Amino acid sequence: MYRTQNIDSNSNATNAIRTIALGAAAAKPAAAKPMISVAGAQQNELLRALSRNDLEALFPHLELVPMAAGKHLYDFGSKFDYAYFPTNAIVSLMYVMEDGATTEIGVVGREGVLGVAMYEAERATCSAVVQTAGYAYRLKSSVLRELVASGGAMAQLLMRYTFAMFAQLAQNVVGGRHCTIEQKLCRWLLDRLDRSLSDEIKVTQDTMATMLGVRRETITMTARKLQADGLIQYRRGTVAIIDRAGLEECAGTCYRAGKIGFEQMHATAWSNA
User: Fold this and answer.
1) What would the pLDDT profile of 80-106 be if each residue is shown by its tens digit?
2) Whether the Cβ atoms of residue 215 and residue 202 lie closer than 8 Å to each other
3) Please, which pLDDT band fits residue 237 given cuts at 50, 70 and 90?
4) How distant is the alpha carbon of residue 166 from its chain centre?
5) What is the structure's pLDDT at 270?
6) Which DSSP letter does residue 41 get?
């Protein structure tokens, strides 16, 4: 595991006034940039699929950044300044309607990347909001475009990842029309479990209702049923997965179809790494 330096970003007005009053001479030196290592970067599966030489060539351009829960990496219409390669953070891709209603259209974790812009004028078509706090390696969009234009290993990986994401988004559309709320919730939980480092998911019923575009009461009843069936254990703010195999069976094709693209991506990426 990599270690990062904790940086306190909260300013203190009282201390600031005291510093000015005392004429405190020198400002504090900037915190050291966290070290970039092969082991740390390889916690993201796309970066792990690169050869060691290709990965180390990225080190001068990579920056390890904290991803606080609720942070917006970008919103609809935003310019892409950075691409983000999550390690242990989980990010929801959200579409916001004119009336303020939101629905999750995709999810990205350590298997992928966010904010890829193939041309400079490209703008975001959805919002990317951190759901589970953690870390990510970020890379300037201009640098990523140069890598893609060179046609090297990163370009190949991004093409495979784009195919996998398209499969996920397509299954979300199909599932939205043809899957039951029970199947949708099971898939939603499994999608998080696949990107989590534990069998527990920190999430509220309000959040699940927002992501799935249903009423909170619907989530409450569905979660109770899954708990009664021995698949999950729910307590305030936490869902513990008790029976993953049972959860997958309950989700059915609503979950399995969305994984096909990523399984193919992993197979080809690792065979060519």
Assistant:
1) 999 999 999 999 999 887 777 788 888
2) no
3) confident
4) 16
5) 53
6) H
